[in-house]
What does this fold into?
Amino acid sequence: MNTEPVGSRSVQDALVAPTVGEPVDAVLSRQLEELAHRAWPPLRELRFGGWMLRESAGSSRRGNSVWARGNVDDVAAALAVVREFYAPVGLPATVQITPVSRPSGIHQALDTAGFDDTGPTDVCAADLTDLIGRLAAGAPGDARIGADNGSRGTNLLDAVLLDAMDGIWLDVAAQVLETFAGQRNGTLRVLENLTVPAAYALCALDGVPVAVGRGVVDGDWLGVYSMATLPAARGRGAARAVLARLAAWAADAGASRAYLQVEQTSTAARRLYAALGFRPVYRYSYRRSTC
It folds into this structure.
């Protein structure tokens, strides 16, 4: 469990968010967890006290973990129920932990029960108008953004917005994201259950599809998901082009803010999102049973 003091963090990573035991905006953190739940609805769920047990055919850690959103009377007994819930589908008992997870002693209980930590992810938010402005400004070294008339040229980016995933979008996503590769069937079933508007952006570089992203609009929030750029096209502005499409779509739908989740190990993505005005809200991780 990461308990590194705020003052000891690297100043080079602007997206390191508060974690367990550190001051956090609890109201915003809980709101963003609610949004994320609707953006990735589980295929099966079981409520036990204030916990929600989620299972989605193994697709994604969020969809196959406990959302410890409220209290339970006995954490040890609750963890026994969690093990029983996941065992029949061959999944390890996993609990998503945030600074606002409940009950307050859950972290120590997971330590005692032998749950490891599979790595931190930071949830970040930005003002949508500011994000659109920064995206429009571009960055040195970006490829040129093409118009929607199909024009092509050397190092030309062309991003389009889709109402639904097509085969090309899925092929690009599957080359980068496990959720659209080995876990594709479960992922598609999850996305079929969405109750919030969604859009899918696809970016081509000199006519070759190289990057994708998924957006959902929920109230005044744009949720950014499934961002993926093929290795050979990274650093050319493709991710910016995808984000620009999603941001413009969300603004037209009435959104004013954006959020996303970025893993600690995604260094290039973290630099990009920080430069685009995203700021950290809270950090979560997954605690997984090892016995």
